[in-house]
Amino acid sequence: MTTTAANSQHPANSLELRNLRKTFGSLEVLRGVSLSAQKGEVISLIGASGSGKSTLLRCVNLLEKPTAGDIILDGETLALKTGKAGLEAANRRQAERFRSRLGMVFQSFNLWQHMTVLQNVMEGPLHVQKRPKSDAMAEAKTVLERVGLGKKFDAYPAQLSGGQQQRAAIARALAMQPDVMLFDEPTSALDPELVGEVLNVIRELAEEGRTMLLVTHEMRFAREVSDRVIYLHNGIIEEEGPPSQVFDNPSSDRCRAFVSSIH
Ligand code: ADP
Ligand code: MG
Known about the structure:
Elements: H1 5-9, E1 13-24, E2 27-38, E3 42-46, H2 53-60, E4 68-73, E5 76-77, E6 80-82, E7 87-89, H3 92-100, E8 102-105, H4 117-128, H5 133-146, H6 162-174, E9 180-184, H7 192-207, E10 211-215, H8 219-225, E11 228-233, E12 236-241, H9 243-248, H10 253-262
Helix pairs in contact: 4-5, 4-6, 5-6, 6-7
The structure holds adenosine-5'-diphosphate and magnesium ion.
Magnesium ion is lined by residues 53-54, 185.
GO molecular function, one term: ATP binding
Membrane topology: Peripheral membrane protein
Family: Belongs to the ABC transporter superfamily.
């Protein structure tokens, strides 16, 4: 266990967002979102299409420039400065360090097609973390075995099913040993019969005590794995609580309608 000054101030919070805002032109997509994920906490983000879920995850790892707000990891605030399209990192090295602690999994896998599965997973440890090749390869093999792809090291993405590709994408994120995993509708692009194998991997990660922020339309799964569920509506947290509250007894009528429309 490492104890830094930052850690001791915020002992339990792994990821914290304070008043995050994002506008695209005149469109206000995030209108002040604050949340904190404690270490090991699994938070599901639900909400209608267009409510800002993807934008929120993308702002967290600076794929999108927030308009205002703070991003805090383990008590350390990411330094931001005003740029053209919003806030950008004031310190590139700090931003890279932050981003390498966040593992992102997208709906569309985003594997490099010209590389084998093993090469895809080694890429981050090798070129971002600059770990020795033998070390990167050992790490990649370990995480691929964990997601059930121990026999697919040399396959190319096109030779895999969607479920296998998404598991490889999860392995690629895990190989960076992230503190927080961000999932953006990881099963939405999959044929129904392939959803289960990906959810099983995510469930195992949740049970291991990983900190996770998961955007999903799989309400039964969200209920099962989440410590907390956040319902986003028009860029604002409209309901937030344990799954039993958000799904069974929400105070927001809109949340109730949304949840029952998906069930
Ligand atoms: P969700 O993931 O909840 O479906 P998004 O975060 O993708 O929602 O989008 C929220 C809103 O932001 C939508 O109205 C969408 O059209 C808009 N939006 C997202 N990305 C951009 C962009 N790069 N430029 C302009 N508008 C965007
Ligand atoms: Mg989305």
